[in-house]
Amino acid sequence: MNDVLEATSPATNLSGPVTCVTKVELRVSCKALLDRDTLNKSDPCVLLMVQTNGQWMELDRTEVIKSNLHPVFAKVFSLDYYFEEVQKLRFEVYDIHGTHSIGTRDDDFLGGVECTLGQKRMVKPLLLKYGKYAGKSTITVHAEEISGNNGYVELSFRAKKLDDKDLFSKSDPFLEIYRINDDETEQLVHRTEVIKNNLNPVWEPFKVSLISLCSCDEDRKLKCLVWDYDSRGKHDFIGEFYATFREMQAISSGNKVSWDCVNPKYKQKKRNYKNSGVVILTDIKLHKVYSFLDYIMGGCQIHFTVAIDFTASNGDPRNSCSLHYINPYQPNEYLKALIAVGEICQDYDSDKRFSALGFGARIPPNYEVRLNLSLVEAYQNCLPKIQLYGPTNVSPIINRIANALFFLQRYHILLILTDGVVTDMADTREAIVRASYQPLSIIIVGVGNADFTDMQILDGDDGVLRSPKGEPVLRDIVQFVPFRDFKTASPAALAKCVLAEVPKQVVEYYSHKAISPFCPITDLPTPILSPSVSTFYEKLKL
User: Fold this and answer.
1) Do the record's keywords include Repeat (predicted)?
2) Which of 21, 150, 212, 307 suits a disulfide with 357, CB 3.0-4.6 Å?
3) Cα pseudo-dihedral 229, 232, 236, 242, rounded to 10
4) Which residue has the higher pLDDT, 272 or 455?
5) Short-list 52, 50, 42, 54, CA closest to 109
């Protein structure tokens, strides 16, 4: 049976249960690893694997720690946690022999373990192939939930006049920060880079969540250690000091924040001993992190626009083979996609009024090609009044919506329903790059059985979408889904897939603009406080 790592999400109740995604941070350490090296000890690294469609795929990896059989890794694994889903994880430990890909035949496998998210701390023996124990080797995994309201802090440290621990050169210092837990155990929060041959090092700024740094307790003790790096793993201790996050924040008032770096042995033996150097906090930046629900409950509304493909390739709507054929007994694929997505989006727009656009149609009496079908009363009513034509140009739709976005308190979702690959791909890529700077998400649903391979280019999941001139998108705003993959699935399954990335995209936009939620929950209009606030997460199972 797989072991379980727990990261319990706090309950949120807005006239009904809300199931939502939360971020989890995993920290890893090992003990008594097998020694596979002849002259030195093993150089371990841990790979985090996730199971997708029955296959184990690498999600991330730790740093390599030289010559250490009891490593405490500074790398923090971050992943989304879904309470209602079984998320299988696998940790694999390797002794690294080169700089090439980890896990090759040149590296030694030191053991692995499988688990699922379910408990806060797991200590398990490492297993080799065929279930054989890897000696007394164990791996410890700590899981901590990072909620949207905790935020994170960016810290910058330097030191001066550190003790010189080397004979022919100067010390190679690095700094470690440990959080002291309620049970007096110590949890590594961060390990800086090594500054070579320098007694007055300036370490790179680093970011850490407040829950990781101090469990959001400003007075929690932090133990800070300064070491002289040794490539064989036998680092020389320079000194230590204790701090709190409250002390660190004094720098915001213009006060100097520094600590004596003390070696307790020297302090006990040397009468005139003062310190082994001074560590100085040079800068601190606090960053508030908001969640999707923070913005929704803060007054942000989602406005929904649908653009429908009326090109001739759909077939004559009067013919039962047409993708636009109106069957009196069941909706066609266009209607199914429209209903599935619109049903959820309507709960985030107080006036419940959607904009409807069309492209590729000719409008009587002159049958000139028109882009805007205005606000049509209903999709079925417009079909007899138009002639399907072409081409499948999408960029005018995107540009039209992006150029009309004026209200920061309203985020837009553009749903494009089309039966084929767009004919203005270069212009569409350019339009998407421009739109990535606006409060807009674009969902493209491919209807019918066409080859949509080229449409995957617009979805940035496999890489960064760029304009024809090479400019990258500011953020990934496009999600493409072939409707045929959901023909036998429920409307909720389609909605979950096409809307899954919207919460992240909303947060990314407002975070980039440094915009906080607009108003407290007590000031929200009645439609936002209705039970439907939770609909997005309930239906998507996020």
Assistant:
1) yes
2) 307
3) 60
4) 272
5) 42
